[in-house]
Amino acid sequence: NAGVTQTPKFRILKIGQSMTLQCTQDMNHNYMYWYRQDPGMGLKLIYYSVGAGITDKGEVPNGYNVSRSTTEDFPLRLELAAPSQTSVYFCASSFSPRDRNYEQYFGPGTRLTVT
Amino acid sequence: GENVEQHPSTLSVQEGDSAVIKCTYSDSASNYFPWYKQELGKGPQLIIDIRSNVGEKKDQRIAVTLNKTAKHFSLHITETQPEDSAVYFCAASTGGTSYGKLTFGQGTILTVHP
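Output (structure tokens, whole complex):
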């Protein structure tokens, strides 16, 4: 299994540009998550999904959008990039917490700079 | 919502020494407490976790303790090795609910000197 894969690894955007961060998992996990990690800070949840077609906001959703059309993919969309969105973005996935298997598996991250 | 505080922010030890990282949480409903290790350029990886019905859990050189009354939990690494150098994050979750949302601490940069 490849686990959780993310593309691209690095990206520089100009203010106002848009982009999509890709995330794919091959572990047949129902739950998927997007986090951002700012320097010296812990990870903050942006959006999450409990299955195809179902998404919900996390702690810091403003400026982002998500969709979940398949179990495997959970892309994160930035519509109008702002310098405050400069961060490292991590995608994660897990089985359903209802199954009492709570481990989240993280991808390698996308480092985004907005200038 | 849940708030998780983690200390210290940096920790430097000699190889073979023990390292202890402490976290406090605010939501008494939290019942799942994982610890993640993040190596440079990689995503976090779960190293150990504990649930609220257990006070202590060990896995070789690492252990986690939980004090529900005081709402704090700690990571203990014994006989540290240079490869233990990384950023460590604690987290808390109301794992029994529908959504496994984790609230993370700020992270501890652990450096083990040979």
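The two ends of chain A are 36 Å apart (CA to CA).
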